[in-house]
Amino acid sequence: xxxxxxxxxxxxxxxxxxxxxxxxxxxxxxxxxxxxxxxxxxxxxxxxxxxxxxxxxxxxxxxxxxxxxxxxxxxxxxxxxxxxxxxxxxxxxxxxxxxxxxxxxxxxxxxxxxxxxxxxxxxxxxxxxxxxxxxxxxxxxxxxxxxxxxxxxxxxxxxxxxxxxxxxxxxxxxxxxxxxxxxxxxxxxxxxxxxxxxxxxxxxxxxxxxxxxxxxxxxxxxxxxxxxxxxxxxxxxxxxxxxxxxxxxxxxxxxxxxxxxxxxxxxxxxxxxxxxxxxxxxxxxxxxxxxxxxxxxxxxxxx
Length: 303
Known about the structure:
GO molecular function: protein kinase activity
CATH architecture: Orthogonal Bundle
CATH topology: Transferase(Phosphotransferase), domain 1
Organism: Coemansia erecta
Largest sheet: 7 strands, antiparallel
Domain Fungal-type protein kinase: 11-301
Oligomer: single chain
Order of helices and strands: EEHEEEEEHEEEHEHEEEE
Protein name: Fungal-type protein kinase domain-containing protein
Distance between the termini: 33 Å
Radius of gyration: 22 Å
Shape: globular
Strand order of the largest sheet: 3-4-5-6-7-11-8
Pfam families: Pkinase_fungal (PF17667)
Number of strands: 15
Number of helices: 4
Strand content: 25-35%
């Protein structure tokens, strides 16, 4: 069956002899699969990078520097506008896809890959990478409801004349994950692409139905990867009422300006979608409220 575009086996009754055989057969088949057959994302790889840490005892001044190996991810981010790919090394996982069924949104704090053996030791150039698998009712690359499209509109509106009384999510890279399935042609990672591997065509969900009547009935989903700045923190990091008022007021100014200047209505205001940004990452510095997550946004006047 197909569960949210991820292939899984039919139910196995492991309490019965026939189930034992099916389970062993499944494990053997998995062990002989290549990583792409198991659904691994070739555009996201585990890597070991050298980082620097300071010892906490025995040294003078700032302590002695020691090299430490850290396991992180190198993520390739393709930009649909420029047809260019930029690579980043993750520093922190904000949201992990911890559900084994289906594809879920993941978010990372990352820095650009550099030429010095992929060393990532500081906060310069930090960005947020959002790796998502949202449904769409339009052509994948021309979806007017795509978060990428909204962030491009916001960027183009404020790039030449930045607002002085609020900050906004700045799009760095926005595109769809592309897979090389036959070593010749690249294709966008979508639900239809998964079905193509099975030799079965996907069927749209019947109108008014939330659940699939059969495994062939699935929403069309597209694998999108967005790189943004600045990096914010949970609204729970606010220290007092004064900071709360400052953050909420700035987020409200951003929301109002996006409506008036960009014609974009957010439609999903919540404590999860308002972040705190402090200048230079300093807890005592000026703070801002950052409105994020335009998955449910619409263009005003658009149905």
